[in-house]
Amino acid sequence: MLITFEGIEGCGKSTQAVRVREWLQSMGRSVLLSREPGGTAVGRTLRSLLLDAQNNHLCSRTELFLYLADRAQHVHEIIKPGLEAGSVVLVDRFADSTLVYQGFGRGLDLHMVQGLNELAVDRVTPDLTLVLDLSPETGLQRARSRNGEQGTDQSEGRFEAESLAFHSRIREGYLELASRDRERIVVVNGAGTEDEVYAQVQKEIESRLLSP
Ligand code: TYD
User: Fold this and answer.
1) How many angstroms separate the CA atoms of 51 and 40, rounded?
2) Ligand 1 center–CA 159 separation, angstroms
3) Closest approach atom of ligand 1 to CA 37
4) How far apart are the CA of 211 and the centre of ligand 1, in A?
5) pLDDT of the chain along its 212 residues, tens only?
6) Domains defined along the chain, listed by start
7) Half-sphere exposure of 150 toward its Cβ, with a 13 Å CA cutoff?
C-alpha cells in the first residue's frame, strides 16, 4: 500500500505523515516513511542542489529533470522494495508535486511532465494521495517561521522565496488534480489544528484503505 502526502509549503503534511506512521505501526503494520526530494543518498545531494536559494538560476527543465532523477532512484531503491516486502509505504511528496510545481507552477506542459513522471515512477501508483489544502498566505507564514527557527532559510528556501502568485497556482493545481481523480486523491482541510487535521487524515485512510 502506497500513501502519498501532498500540499503547499507549510501545509503540515510532514507532521501528519509521522503521525500516520506511528498509528499504523501501533496496529502492528510494517511502515516505511520516506520523502521526496531526498529519500536516498543520491537524492539528498539532489535535494541540496534543488532547494539551495543560491541556485535561483536553475531553469525549469533542469529543475524538472533533477526532481525526476530523485524520484526514479527513490522508486528503485526504497519504494518498490518496500512495497514488495509488504510494508505500507508513506511518502512525503511524490509525482503530483512535479505536476503541480513544475507544471502548474513553472508552466511546463502538463502532458510532457505526466509522461516523464511515468518514466520515473516505473508503474508505481499511490493507492491514496492526501492533499492538505491551505491558503498560501497561511502556508508561507508557517513555512517561513519554521525555516527561521531551524536556520534553513538559505539552504532550503528556494521555493519559500517564490511569490504568492506562484503558491496560489500550486494550490489550484492540487485542487484541479483532485477534481480529475477523486478515486485516488482526497483533499483534506489543512487549516485546522494538528489534531483536527489528523482526525480527518485517519478517517480517510480508515475508510478507503483499512475497512474490509
Ligand atoms: P519539501 O521537503 O516537502 O518542503 P516543504 O516541507 O517545505 O514543503 O519539498 C521541497 C520543495 O520541493 C517544495 O518546495 C516543493 C518542491 N518540489 C517540486 O517542486 N517538485 C517535486 O517534484 C517535488 C517532489 C518537490
Assistant:
1) 16
2) 8
3) 24
4) 31
5) 999 999 999 999 999 999 999 999 999 999 999 999 999 999 999 999 999 989 999 999 999 999 999 999 999 999 999 999 999 999 999 999 999 999 999 999 999 999 999 999 999 999 999 999 999 999 999 988 887 776 665 567 788 878 899 999 999 999 999 999 999 999 999 999 999 999 999 999 999 988 87
6) 2-207 (3.40.50.300)
7) 12
